[in-house]
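Contributing new records

If you add data, match the layout below exactly. Sequence lines come first and carry their own label; structure lines follow with theirs. Keep one chain per record. Anything else will be rejected by the validation script.
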Amino acid sequence: MDSKGQASAEFILLFGGIMVVVLLVVYMYNNYIGDLSDEIASNEVKIFNSELNSLGNYFK
């Protein structure tokens, strides 16, 4: 008899399920970006150190 209430409840459950999936994807993406930024920073430090060492050879 109350089909409007059932439709509303189904819509809320569907929306809640979609939000759970979106939050999981955002969490995994955040971890991926964090790991990637650490790797980029590490490579930049290595490049910077090698350039400093090559410049140091000119002053010896």
